[in-house]
Design brief:
Blueprint: H1 2-20, E1 35-40, E2 48-56, E3 63-75, E4 89-104, E5 112-138, E6 144-171, E7 176-193, E8 212-224
Antiparallel strand pairs: 1-2, 1-8, 2-3, 3-4, 4-5, 5-6, 6-7, 7-8
């Protein structure tokens, strides 16, 4: 937990230095607008659907606050006949990210803007999977029995994130942006499961249930008004 706090403070310090380095008056860039929406397409491959709304809060529109609801939904083989085990699971859930973005001055003739972005997030993710294990059932006589065999189990992940990205957005000159970014995200995950054989099933431990610092690359398609 101490390392997560240090990581978050480091992000805020970098943002503060970046903002202070550009305190001189800046004219309004034609590449920024008061409101913009972003569809983060790279998460589609992993069952994470993100739609971000960003609103600038200063006169030159070089600083923005964003909110991004997240919807998780993916079937990793859970509903495929004959598939069982922790590698075949059904994922669902939701979350939200809050972020601050500082745009950096580049050559406007190139129709591109750089930026630095930092924020925090929370996600609640549910998993279902089939696995062999001990389970209880009620017999025809109304009594409870214990048996070993294939059964449905559940896992819940509650995750807190802090992140920092560097990126560039390019104006396609048709009302849309193309945004590419890279950076790091720190994930603190708490896992609970009904599977009695293990306290942690390691389900999706390199994905949405990852615990630790992880690099991130992404693409987003934005439009503005």
């Amino acid at each position: 937990m101490k390392s997560k706090l240090i990581f978050t403070l480091l992000i805020l310090m970098i943002i503060n230095v970046t903002v202070n380095a550009q305190t001189e008056e800046t004219k309004v860039s034609p590449l920024v607008t008061k409101n913009s929406y972003w569809l983060h397409t790279s998460g589609f491959f992993f069952g994470a659907y993100r739609m971000e709304f960003e609103r600038s809060f200063d006169n030159n529109m070089m600083n923005g606050i964003g909110i991004m609801p997240i919807y998780y939904s993916y079937d990793y083989g859970y509903n495929t006949k004959g598939n069982s085990g922790v590698d075949n699971f059904l994922m669902s859930g939701g979350g939200v990210d809050l972020s601050f973005r500082k745009y950096l001055k580049l050559n406007e003739n190139s129709r591109r803007l750089g930026y630095v972005k930092a924020g925090i997030g929370y996600s609640h993710i549910n998993y279902r999977f089939k696995e062999n294990g001990w389970y209880e059932y009620v017999g025809s006589d109304g009594l409870r029995y214990t048996a070993f065999g294939l059964n449905d189990y559940k896992q819940t992940t509650n995750r807190f994130d802090s992140f920092m990205y560097f990126g560039m957005r390019a104006d396609l000159n048709i009302g849309f942006y193309l945004d590419g970014y890279f950076g790091i995200v720190s994930k603190a995950s708490s896992v609970k499961t009904t599977y009695t054989e293990k306290a942690d099933t390691n389900i999706d431990d390199l994905g949405q249930s990852y615990n630790g610092v992880f690099p991130r690359l992404g693409l987003a398609l934005g439009f503005y008004f």
